[in-house]
Amino acid sequence: MRALILVGGFGTRLRPLTLTMPKPLVPFCNKPMIIHQVEALKEAGVTDIILAVAYRPEAMKAEMEEWGRQIGVTFIFSHETEPLGTAGPLALARDELLKDDQPFFVLNSDVTCKFPLRELLAFHRKHGHEGTIMVTKVQEWHKYGVVVYDETSGLIDQFVEKPKKFVGDKINSGIYCFNKSILNRIKLEKTSIETQVFPQMASSKELYCMELEGFWMDIGQPHDYIDGIAKYLPSILGTPKESESLFNEQTAKDLHFSVVGCVMIDPTAEIGAGCVLGPNVTVGKNCKIGPSCRIQNSAIFENTVIGAGAYISKTIIGWNNIVGRWCRIENNAVFGDDVQVKPELHLNGVKVLPNKTISQSYDKPEVLM
Ligand code: GDD
Ligand code: MG
Q1: Which one of the ligands is nearest to 143 CA?
Q2: How far does the centroid of ligand 1 lie from the alpha carbon of residue 293, in Å?
């Protein structure tokens, strides 16, 4: 089977992380975001994955090919010279998608969930129509594509992208299964699957949906990324592959630091004595966390050093950072690559661009260039 991942895009909402790394390679729970999807696709029987890239494919190629070898899938890069939206990339990859006679999966690259793709495929085959969307219930329906459908059959009556008025709270999760015939609806030009293709399929009664079990999150912006960690970590607790780097209150009992809720700590990271980590913290490769730090609801990317007694809450600390002792960093702060923070500073909600040294406190959110 084949699949296409909509890689996109500049990832502007995840800046400053995406200033030095394409969004799909930004780590989520210590693994590039897109690799969660690639593993799920492989698990569902996909062998060839088309990466629909609208920006800097060369920045991804070497790393993705290495992952492809490890996981056992082949990547085909489909590069748009002009962004083609969320449907145009299917037309561009038409020849590749037609190379096998099965239905194919399409995924947005910035969502996290359990990816029950085998169940999706089985349901798709059962109703026998052109497309199936996985849907999930959310509170902030206005941020997504809302789907109105018959709860018994799953037949979609209406698809409304980012509605201003309430039409429902079941939304498009960005996970699809399509028959090849969908390609006849899409021209090779900038086209939105949500506003141009889905409404048309719904009116010809060719679009169905299936409810997604469990958690789901679009992790394409800092606040949601941090919420996503809180949903993802408990969901993998006890799964063999991840368990070696995942801790909770029970498994951390004999360690020299304490854990609240779930935390994921790469085996190469060093955690100082007396730290309290969690809930919902990820610590990447080769990080060094000084003694007596308090870290919650945050991600610390590879090769970062945190000084003693730092307090970090709801923050994403990028790669290769050095944070001084006794700093207090909170409220959806995001640091790019290679940021240094002098000791004893308070940083509230700041976005710090790569290669920057911070020597004073910022009590209000702002972008530090
Ligand atoms: N190749 C390519 N070219 N990919 C693109 C382009 C493009 O021009 N534009 C966007 N993408 C990719 C993005 O990288 C992302 O993986 C996916 O398409 C969706 O784009 P977003 O920009 O993240 O859209 P959204 O989050 O506002 O809304 C979409 O996702 C929601 C679920 O998270 C829609 O599909 C909504 O209906 C849906 O509810
Ligand atoms: Mg998105």
Answers
A1: 1
A2: 37
d(CA 342, CA 321): 11
Ligand 1 pocket check for 144: Cβ under 6 Å: yes
ipTM of the complex: 0.98
For 48, residues 6+ apart whose C-beta sits below 8 A from its C-beta are 1, 2, 3, 73, 74, 75, 76, 96, 99, 100
- Asked if residue 100 lies in contact with residue 2, where contact means CB atoms within 8 angstroms, the answer is yes
Tell me the average pLDDT of the chain. 94
Whole-number Å distance between alpha carbons of 323 and 94: 48
- Which one is catalytic: 126, 137, 143, 162? 162
Q: How many Å lie between the centroid of ligand 1 and the Cα of residue 255?
A: 42
State if residue 52 touches ligand 1 by the CB under 6 angstroms criterion: yes
CB 38, CB 4: distance < 8 Å: no
pLDDT score for 223:
93
Give the ligand with the smallest distance to the CA of 146: 1
pLDDT confidence of residue 255: 84
Protein residue with least CA distance to atom 13, ligand 1: 8
Q: At what angle do helices 58-71 and 33-43 cross, to 10 degrees?
A: 40
Reply yes or no on whether 162 is catalytic. Answer: yes
User: Residue 2 in contact with residue 46, Cβ under 8 Å?
Assistant: yes
